[in-house]
Amino acid sequence: MGFLLVFFPEEDQNQTQNKPNNFNLFSIKRTNSFNLIHRAQSTISICLLLVFTTLLLFTLSTLPRNLRQFPSSSSSPSNLSHALQGMGTLYRRGTRAMNDVVVAHAHDSLSLNELKLFLRLFFRSSLASKSDLLLIFPSKTPKLNNLILQEHDSFFKLLTRTSFDVTHFTKMGKKERESGEPIWGQKTRTNYSGPESNRLSYGSVVGFDVDELDSENSLSGFVDHVPMSLRRWACYPMLLGRVRRNFKHVMLVDVKDILLLGDPLGRVATSQSSPSKHGKRNSDKTESTRKNPVHPGIVMGGSRGVRRLSNAMLTDIVRASIQHKKKKNSVTESGIFNQLIGNDYALKNVNLIVSTESLPELSSLGGSGSKSGSHLFTRNYGLIKRGNSNLDVVNSMMMKHICSFPIDAAVYSDCFL
């Protein structure tokens, strides 16, 4: 009896071959689905990004144009640059070229709190909107740089407050609007596109080391120890000579002794607009200054006249030092300055302030405590004298009064101390 054996080898082989094909087909379908989902997510993300960007640009384009616009302020000492021909330190570059300049000198004994009060009051004054501030230090230190930058940043924060009155910093005439860029630092482009009535105006802030302006210490051969009160006169010829074509009016001020609140240089510009009274005014002024002592800590006048006075003062310092060479501590700034004011040629186009009439002391302005601070701001004082007694108390009183205003308390960090 035989056997019947039937084999189907081809069918088994086809089944084994179809299994991997089915698996490959499933893998391909799964990969395609993943790619489609990924592409869909990417497309949705791009669409959302485009929609967000469009909404942002639309919102920015519809904002009102009358908002206050400010340049960015660098609050890092590492970003400081030279101010003029490789000299000086530029703490703030102003919005335009100014006609007036305030040259303030600091004594060796000047404290950080005294400098802080001077800067805080100056930045708020109308004088800061139309003049540059040049500071002359015996030596610049990181603490001084940080303090100046902090006060500068606080001033900008004040400007951004809607409750702060910026009238002094926006009121400009046609000549001011058409003035060029400041001479300090590198030229920059301003992207202000708002109305001219809202354009801000404030001056530059520059600091110089005394060795930059008087590298040889020219008075050291005539005076054993040259104080800052005398050496500053040796710095003016170079400084004022380099900027003689850039400024019409100059103020020389003592940071330690004088506080600037308003615009005392404004009356100098106003008086110079009446040339017919120029000769008589100088004559009367000379007679009054011969009878009353003149404070050497504040000098205002035309640029050429102040340069002439500073050169004459430097010459008289050398002459007085030679005459009193055998005597010690016989040369004083106040003595030489009051002798110099009798020279009519040196006083030409220079406005000297008689201290007994025009320099009220802070301690005598309406009592003690915060009350005198309130009198200080309610009256139109252009400048005041700190006084020689209780300087720490006076500075503390002024700081407390400034911090009593909510807008100032929110800006100045030392108001919380």
TrEMBL record:
<feature type="region of interest" description="Disordered">
    <location>
        <begin position="268"/>
        <end position="301"/>
    </location>
</feature>
<dbReference type="Pfam" id="PF25002">
    <property type="entry name" value="DUF7780"/>
</dbReference>
<feature type="region of interest" description="Disordered">
    <location>
        <begin position="177"/>
        <end position="196"/>
    </location>
</feature>
<feature type="domain" description="DUF7780">
    <location>
        <begin position="81"/>
        <end position="358"/>
    </location>
</feature>
<dbReference type="InterPro" id="IPR056682">
    <property type="entry name" value="DUF7780"/>
</dbReference>
<feature type="compositionally biased region" description="Basic and acidic residues">
    <location>
        <begin position="281"/>
        <end position="290"/>
    </location>
</feature>
<feature type="compositionally biased region" description="Polar residues">
    <location>
        <begin position="187"/>
        <end position="196"/>
    </location>
</feature>
<protein>
    <recommendedName>
        <fullName>DUF7780 domain-containing protein</fullName>
    </recommendedName>
</protein>
